[in-house]
């Protein structure tokens, strides 16, 4: 048994060293021999401090005493002491790390000290490696921080430069454009006129680019602030929408604008920027949609005591944006397929401006898109409520403009007992290329309406027999004709008449005598597909 | 609970004791390490709330504990405790690893070497404290090997520090290394009779002082 224990002590994978009461070495195991090159026979009976003078130092000697006297253990770490028993290899001294554990032992009344030595060189090596890594990481992080700051400064300087330059270029550009317009007013032959028009177009797109660059650099260099002014939401939206509706019509696109109630109309914020945002996104929709429809839906998604959150959804049925391109479209100068044979105009700044504006306004923008099917942009924007005006929630606004096929002509029924009047109005309608029929009293009109479909009925009020209002009452009874727009023509429009007519089922009225432009406005309003001779 | 006089006497005694530990540590790391004990209390189960407050003020969250058990005539367990980041900072300061002593790096984690160092610091300190308690109570003590634990301390749970039927000697202690002050705590759990004898001894000291 004793033999076995001795073998164990000899073989364990730590250094084991036993001292007797007089600090002489009583056991020295194989591990220590391997470490020091000193065999057991050489060291047995020697005093530890003679072999290793460092143990004379008070931190050690007092510990040994404590172990004998008070029975205390003591753990020494390589972190503080490096090593305790020197390795035979001098080179190894540079790297070796050890922990040491000092414990009292007592057999009967005889006291001993057991010292165990653990090699932690590998552990220390790992820790050091880790520290090097951490240090490198820290340096890299600092460098990154510095270059990031430098980039910010550089970008700001660039933006300031651009802002100033664009501003400087804009002034002479304005002059150039002014003189082109003046030149166009002079007598030019066809060829000259043609060239001038091309110059004007080029100047316009250059000017557009300048405006965009000016915008983005102002935003980026921080020379830009948002207005906080009261405005009417619906009128801003409509004016943005109207501005682009001609372009859409030219391309043969249907358009739809929906402002869904309940929505707060009296708001405070930067309406100019709102309009700019909408115009930018809408003009993209039109530009990238060869056929189909573009639409704008406005909803109020949140309302608090002080403010509202509005959601604008701009959808098109255009070419779409592939998922891989979607994250990039808000980047400056990014254009999908920006390569050589790009068939779309523009500089790739529009959405970058939009995004910056929206974020400065405290909102966000995102998009859904499927290639070949279309794109929807969503912008959510906060606005303050304008509480100075008493407000009423607005009615639902739905504007639709459908493009009808080209053979279609709007049909108009003109009802008036006065032949002179019928002649003038008829002449205009003919000039503007409307298909129209006329009749001279109410009952005749009712028959005609039964016979065919009309896009609009122009109806005199004061007629022998049935009055205009009587005719409308009859028409509206029939479900089929309940939506045909009816505009009443009346000579003696007075205050309150309008309400009376409208409540009688008329859609609008025009007071006699009226001019061509008034009539045209009415026609445009009720027959949305513009078809005038102008 | 100790009365203010007893408390002062115990505090003075502990400051002397812990000063010795400071000397040992200073020699060990070749720089001045001062140890201060600004506050000493002897608490029992019914003083739980005081302990809770203390724990909440200095030992919340992840805590490193270096501990020793002791036994025979006086038995219990002693712990040196630091919030992990402070423990790490102390180790870095004592190893002289300045670069890593600012804890803005998220290296609150202890490496194996750090853990060893903390084990030794605890060992030195707790040996001195328990040794001196043994001297004071004139009793023989057996010591276990030092242990390191990483604990998570929540508000209400005081388990590792407080055992029903035991007294807990609570020392707040501050390590002063160079410019830095690092606060931790030492908890020594004592059996009832050891605690009673400790109070008797304190009273004897008071008599010595006032006579
Ligand atoms: N509705 C859309 N459908 C398909 N692609 C779109 C749509 N809107 C934007 N894109 C893509 O995103 C790119 C970036 O749009 P952005 O408005 O920033 O630039 P642009 O319209 O090309 O030029 P700019 O607006 O400056 O005149 C566009 O070039 C286009 O490739
Ligand atoms: Mg665009």
TrEMBL record, chain A:
EC number in record: 2.7.13.3
Domain Histidine kinase: 164-385
Catalytic activity: ATP + protein L-histidine = ADP + protein N-phospho-L-histidine
A biological-process GO annotation: regulation of DNA-templated transcription
Residues that bear 4-aspartylphosphate: 460
Coiled coil: none
Record protein name field: Circadian input-output histidine kinase CikA
Species, as recorded: Heliorestis acidaminivorans
Organism lineage: Bacteria, Bacillati, Bacillota, Clostridia, Eubacteriales
TrEMBL record, chain B:
Molecular-function annotations in GO: hydrolase activity
Tagged with keyword Hydrolase: yes
Signal sequence region: none
The CheC-like protein domain, residue ranges: 6-40
Gene Ontology biological process terms, A to Z: chemotaxis
Keyword presence, Hydrolase: yes
Domain of life where this protein originates: Bacteria
Keywords: Chemotaxis, Hydrolase
The protein's name: Chemotaxis protein CheC
Organism: Heliorestis acidaminivorans
């Amino acid at each position: 048994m004793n033999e076995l224990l001795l073998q164990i002590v000899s073989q364990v994978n730590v250094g084991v060293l036993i001292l007797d009461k007089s600090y002489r070495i009583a056991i020295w195991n194989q591990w220590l021999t391997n470490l020091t090159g000193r065999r057991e026979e050489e060291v047995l009976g020697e005093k530890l401090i003679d072999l290793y003078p460092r143990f004379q130092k008070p931190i050690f000697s007092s510990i040994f005493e404590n172990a004998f006297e008070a029975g205390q253990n003591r753990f020494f770490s390589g972190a503080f002491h490096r090593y305790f028993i020197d390795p035979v290899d001098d080179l190894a001294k540079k790297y070796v790390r050890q922990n040491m554990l000092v414990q009292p032992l007592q057999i009967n009344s005889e006291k001993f000290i057991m010292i165990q030595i653990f090699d932690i060189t590998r552990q220390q090596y790992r820790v050091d490696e880790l520290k090097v890594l951490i240090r490198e990481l820290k340096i890299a992080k600092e460098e990154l921080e510095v270059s990031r700051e430098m980039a910010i400064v550089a970008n700001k300087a660039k933006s300031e430069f651009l802002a100033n330059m664009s501003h400087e270029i804009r002034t002479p550009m304005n002059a150039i454009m002014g003189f082109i317009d003046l030149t166009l007013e002079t007598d030019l032959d066809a060829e000259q006129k043609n060239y001038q028009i091309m110059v004007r177009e080029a100047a316009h797109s250059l000017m557009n680019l300048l405006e965009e660059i000016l915008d983005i650099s102002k935003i980026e260099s921080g020379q830009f602030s948002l207005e906080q002014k009261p405005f009417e939401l619906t009128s801003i939206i409509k004016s943005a929408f109207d501005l682009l509706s001609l372009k859409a019509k030219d391309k043969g696109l249907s358009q739809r604008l929906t402002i869904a109630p309940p929505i707060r109309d009296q708001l405070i914020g930067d309406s100019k920027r709102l309009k700019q945002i909408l115009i930018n996104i809408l003009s993209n929709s039109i530009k990238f949609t060869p056929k189909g429809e573009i639409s704008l839906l406005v909803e109020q998604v949140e309302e608090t005591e002080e403010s509202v959150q509005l959601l604008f959804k701009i959808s098109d049925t255009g070419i779409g944006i592939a998922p891989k391109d979607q994250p990039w479209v808000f980047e400056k100068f990014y254009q999908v397929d920006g390569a050589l044979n790009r068939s779309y105009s523009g500089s790739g700044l529009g959405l970058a401006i939009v995004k910056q504006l929206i974020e400065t306004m405290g909102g966000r923008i995102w998009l859904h898109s499927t290639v070949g099917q279309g794109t929807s942009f969503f912008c959510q924007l906060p606005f303050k409520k304008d509480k100075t005006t008493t407000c009423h929630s607005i009615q639902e606004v739905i504007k639709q403009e459908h493009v009808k096929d080209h053979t279609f002509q709007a049909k108009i029924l003109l009802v008036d007992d006065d032949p002179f009047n019928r002649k003038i109005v008829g002449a205009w309608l003919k000039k503007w290329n409307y298909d129209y029929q006329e009749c001279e009293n109410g009952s005749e009109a009712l028959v005609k309406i039964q016979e065919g479909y009309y896009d609009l009925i122009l109806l005199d009020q004061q007629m022998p027999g049935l009055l205009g209002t009587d005719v409308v009452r009859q028409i509206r009874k029939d479900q089929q004709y309940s939506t045909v727009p009816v505009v009443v023509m009346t000579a003696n429009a007075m205050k309150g008449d309008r309400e009376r007519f409208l409540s009688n089922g008329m859609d609008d009225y025009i007071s006699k005598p009226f001019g061509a432009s008034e009539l045209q406005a009415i026609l445009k309003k009720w027959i949305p597909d513009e078809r005038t001779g102008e | 609970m100790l009365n203010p006089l007893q408390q002062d006497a115990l505090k003075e005694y502990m400051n002397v004791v812990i000063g010795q530990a400071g000397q040992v540590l200073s020699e060990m790391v070749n720089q001045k390490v001062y140890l201060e004990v600004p506050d000493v209390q002897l608490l029992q189960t019914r003083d739980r709330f005081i302990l809770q407050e203390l724990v909440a003020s200095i030992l919340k969250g992840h805590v490193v504990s270096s501990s020793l058990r002791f036994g025979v005539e006086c038995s219990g367990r002693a712990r040196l405790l630091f919030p992990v980041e402070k423990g790490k900072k102390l180790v870095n300061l004592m190893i002289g690893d300045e670069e890593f002593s600012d804890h803005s790096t998220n290296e609150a984690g202890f490496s194996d070497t750090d853990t060893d160092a903390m084990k030794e610091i605890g060992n030195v300190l707790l040996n001195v404290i328990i040794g001196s308690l043994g001297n004071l109570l004139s009793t023989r003590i057996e010591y276990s090997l030092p242990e390191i634990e990483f604990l998570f301390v929540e508000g209400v749970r005081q388990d590792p520090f407080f055992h029903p039927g035991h007294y807990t000697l609570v020392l707040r202690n501050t390590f002063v290394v160079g410019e830095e002050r690092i606060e931790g705590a030492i908890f020594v759990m004592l059996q009832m009779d050891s605690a009673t004898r400790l109070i008797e001894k304190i009273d004897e000291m008071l008599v010595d002082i006032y006579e």
